[in-house]
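call fold(seq) -> tokens
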Amino acid sequence: MPVFLLIAAGLVAGRRGWVGAAAVKDLSNLVFVLLIPALLFRTMSQVRLEQLDWRPIAAYFSAALPWLALQIAGWGWQPRGIVLALGGTFSNLVMIGIALIGLAYGQAGLVTLLTLIAVHALILLTLASVALELAEARAASGAGAGPGRARVLRAAWSALRGAVIHPIPLPIACGLAWGALGWPLPQVVDRPLHLLGQAFGPLALVLVGISLAHTPLAGRWSTALRVALAKNVALPVLVALSAWVWGLRGLPWTVLVVAAGVPVGANVFLFAQRYRVAQEDVTAATAVSTALAVLTLSGWILVTEALTQ
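ret:
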């Protein structure tokens, strides 16, 4: 409830016009460039690399990647279908996931989540970029324009570089490197990082609500609901089964299932915007997925709690 009450507060602020579109962009930049890196670096600086369990990454993507491919087959091998398939697979692990997992499961849950976040965008956005470029090249080849192999390689490199040189994986890597040195953070540095990290959760969730206030849904309910159900319901089931097969139990298993049930991530809209494909559908799907998560996420939290007792 705290998570969705903060989103609801943002929704009211957006509807009332208390925060303009330009301010939302500036606040989003503040969150991504300052608050998130502070939280990620401080959290991961307290982790020892040799103690990390990498099985959650393998378990998550053992389910997510086949699910992405299956959705592409269902929507059709064309740019719109790939973008919608990405919407049914890509979780909002940063803006909603970090705040939710932190509130529900504390520091131990965050370590598992941040390990996943370190490669989440890198893997999914790179594969989606390559798939979309291949689909466009295939269409162009059919029209006699050539296979466009160089274009595909450029897209893959651009996605890879953008996912690595980014305010999310970089502070995670730097925090792990600092922790590997065994040095404690000086109090004069640790305290400001802690305060910045505390500011991230509420502000990020309020911004989600403000963005939803400006999201049109008319005429796009069917597509939006299909993507939302794929993301909020189907993916958590697949991740739960995969993580169980990989031998994960207790808190790591719970965090993976809940993370898979988090609504559609904002990066999907940025991806659609970059390629000018299905932007309205993705926006509507994000809104429906976030609203539906009030029920589905609560359900997954209750189910995982019951199964791990």
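The two ends are 22 Å apart (CA to CA).
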